[in-house]
C-alpha cells in the first residue's frame, strides 16, 4: 500500500472482510457494494468499477484525503473527489465515496443485500423492517446513488446508529471493529432473509406450462415465476433498485403465454 495511515494488520483484515462480502452473491453482485476504512487523515475505499471479490488478488482500493472530502460534504459541494486521491494506482474512488466519509466510524460496509432489498421495496417497508430488525436503524428514503444520497443520509444521521437501510437500494453497516461490523451486517441480512422465507406463501401455479427454450426450475421458491397472475408479470416489468436497471434494463422481460414469448424471440 505504501502508506503509513493504516497498519498492515488492519489492512489485511479489512481486505479479507471485503473479499468475503464480495464472494457472497446474496450480498454483492458484480461491481456493486463497497467498503472503506478510515484513519485520522485518510480513507481507503473501493475504486469505481472494481469488484469486491478481487479484494485479495488485485489492487482495487483508493486512498483519499478524508478531511478534504468532509469539507466538501459540509459545504454540500458535489464532486468526483479526483483531486482528493492520495494513492497512485490510476483508480478513481467509488461513486458512493461521500457517504463512507460522512459516516463517522472506522469501517463502513455497504452491500446490495438481496434480503434487505426484498424488504425495502414495499410502501410500508419502514414499519415492516422495524418489526423484523428489532434494533435501532436509520431508514433512508430512496435517493439517486452518489452525492444526492449522501445529502439524504446527512439529514437523518445519528452518531450512535450503525445500521442504515436504504430504500430500494441496500444496506450500510458501520463500526470501529471490523469483525463486529461484519457480523452485524450478516446478522441483519440473515434476520431479513429468514423472515422472507418464513412468510413465503405458495401461489397458484399454471399446471403443465411449457415454454420453448426455457426450463422452469422445479422448486417451491421459483413457483412465483409460474404464476398465471398477470399483475405479477406487470410488477416484474418495473425496476426496483439501481442494479436492477444496470443488470436487467428497465424491467425483467416478462411473458404470459407461450405464443407471446415466441414473438419475442426473433431467432
Ligand atoms: Zn449501493
List keywords for this structure.
alpha+beta, 12% strand, L-fuculose-1-phosphate Aldolase, 267 residues, 10 helices, 7-stranded mixed β-sheet, single chain, binds zinc ion
Write structural notes for this entry:
This protein has 267 residues and is of the alpha+beta class. It folds into 2 domains: 8-198, Class II aldolase/adducin N-terminal domain (L-fuculose-1-phosphate Aldolase, 3-Layer(aba) Sandwich); 201-267, no CATH class. 36% of the residues lie in helices and 12% in strands. The protein is built from 10 helices and 7 strands. The chain has helices at residues 8-22, 66-74, 97-102, 114-119, 125-133, 147-156, 178-198, 230-236, 242-248, 258-264, and strands at residues 34-38, 42-46, 61-65, 107-111, 138-140, 163-166, 170-175. Strands 3-2-1-4-7-6-5 form a 7-stranded mixed beta sheet, sandwiched between helices. The radius of gyration is 21 Å and the shape is globular. The mean pLDDT is 85. The site of zinc ion has 6 residues, from loops.
Amino acid at each position: 500500500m505504501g502508506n503509513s495511515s493504516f497498519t498492515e494488520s488492519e489492512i489485511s483484515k479489512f481486505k479479507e472482510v471485503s473479499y468475503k462480502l464480495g464472494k457472497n452473491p446474496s450480498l454483492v453482485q458484480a461491481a456493486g457494494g463497497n467498503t472503506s476504512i478510515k484513519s485520522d487523515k485518510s480513507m481507503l475505499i473501493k475504486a469505481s468499477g472494481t469488484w469486491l471479490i478481487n479484494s485479495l488478488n488485485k489492487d482495487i482500493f483508493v486512498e483519499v484525503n478524508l478531511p478534504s472530502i468532509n469539507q466538501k460534504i459540509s459545504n454540500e459541494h458535489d464532486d468526483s473527489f479526483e483531486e482528493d486521491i492520495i494513492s497512485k494506482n490510476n483508480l478513481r474512488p467509488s461513486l458512493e465515496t461521500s457517504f463512507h466519509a460522512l459516516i463517522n466510524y472506522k469501517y463502513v460496509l455497504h452491500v446490495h443485500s438481496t434480503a434487505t432489498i426484498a424488504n425495502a421495496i414495499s410502501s410500508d417497508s419502514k414499519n415492516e423492517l422495524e418489526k423484523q430488525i428489532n434494533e435501532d436503524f436509520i431508514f433512508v428514503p430512496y435517493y439517486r446513488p452518489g452525492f444526492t444520497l449522501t445529502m439524504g443520509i446527512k439529514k437523518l444521521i445519528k452518531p450512535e446508529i450503525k445500521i442504515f437501510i436504504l430504500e430500494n437500494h441496500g444496506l450500510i453497516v458501520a463500526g470501529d471493529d471490523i469483525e463486529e461490523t461484519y457480523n452485524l451486517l450478516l446478522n441483519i441480512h440473515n434476520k431479513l432473509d429468514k423472515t422472507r422465507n418464513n412468510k413465503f406463501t405458495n401461489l397458484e401455479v399454471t399446471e403443465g406450462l411449457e415454454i420453448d427454450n426455457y426450463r422452469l426450475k422445479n422448486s417451491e421458491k421459483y413457483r412465483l415465476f409460474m404464476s398465471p397472475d398477470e399483475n405479477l408479470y406487470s410488477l416484474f416489468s418495473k425496476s426496483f433498485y439501481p442494479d436492477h436497471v444496470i443488470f436487467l434494463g428497465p424491467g425483467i422481460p416478462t411473458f404470459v403465454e407461450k405464443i407471446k414469448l415466441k414473438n419475442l424471440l426473433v431467432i
